[in-house]
Amino acid sequence: MTHILRMKCEDQAGIVSGLGQVLDRFGCNIGQSFQFLQPASIREDDVAEIFFLRLEFTCTEQTDWSELEQELEALRSCFDADLSVRESGRAVPTILMVSKFDHCLIDILYRVQTGKLPLDIVAVVSNHAHSRADVERLGIPYYLWPVTKENKQEQEQKLEELIERSGAELVVLARYMQILSDEFSSRHFGKIINIHHSFLPAFKGAMPYKRAWERGVKHIGATAHYVTPNLDEGPIIEQDTERVSHSDSASDLVRLGGDVEARVLSKALRLHIEGRVFINGNRTIVFKG
């Protein structure tokens, strides 16, 4: 069994050697490993260099996990580190949220069904019935919760209860066109991922591709990011673009944009699931394999 170890702390002597010695004593073999040292000067309020580490390791059948966990806990305390270990490849319990445009939803469902994305889809939530048949034929619960100004708080409370009841560890806004409250976004920071066209801030709001076509843009794209109370300004996980030209119609841009959105979201989900993304303020450190 392969495990993923993530560590974040102020840089100091002995981190890598100490961790390596612990894993070696328990017969563990280190595989893929990534490190990054963020200079203190990257922000004016930084007072120390920050060290980020992600590594994969395997153990033998003789490894005493209880003792290993105690040793890792001692390292965590010694370096005052944010340190976690989890099994690689574990399907993460996830709630998908969608409105009318379901290209990202369908793409995720296909990748999950074909074993290309390790998610356990515990529910799909929507304010429209458009995708219900496609979801329920896979045996996935579909919750139709229309949102109005009058019931927005009530529907969000239902979502909170669903997260608790289902054990969901991730919420994916797969083109869900409703704004979550500041309280909800803050409470689940780092566990909600959104996909957005990369026209921000020039083309915020409705009909972005039509307005992009009217402006004659030469690239369209998409951005996957963590949700924060600041609308569409959360830490970015993944981005990509597609070249377009004067010969492309507004409909072409919608079609091409949908392809980019689905591609970027699936990449972001895999990076998150594999523990390759570290949130650091409003930025991310992303260790791509």
UniProtKB/TrEMBL annotation:
This is Formyltetrahydrofolate deformylase. GO terms for molecular function: formyltetrahydrofolate deformylase activity. Its EC number is 3.5.1.10. GO terms for biological process: 'de novo' IMP biosynthetic process; one-carbon metabolic process. Pathway: Purine metabolism; IMP biosynthesis via de novo pathway; formate from 10-formyl-5,6,7,8-tetrahydrofolate: step 1/1. Catalyzes the hydrolysis of 10-formyltetrahydrofolate (formyl-FH4) to formate and tetrahydrofolate (FH4). It comes from Cohaesibacter gelatinilyticus. Pfam families: Formyl_trans_N (PF00551). It is an enzyme of class 3 (hydrolase). HAMAP family: PurU. InterPro entries: ACT-like_dom_sf, ACT_dom, Formyl-FH4-Hydrolase_C, Formyl_transf_N, Formyl_transf_N_sf, PurU. Keywords: Hydrolase, One-carbon metabolism, Purine biosynthesis. The active site is at 232. It catalyses: (6R)-10-formyltetrahydrofolate + H2O = (6S)-5,6,7,8-tetrahydrofolate + formate + H(+). The keyword NAD does not apply. The keyword Transferase does not apply. Residues 4-90 form the ACT domain. Belongs to the PurU family.
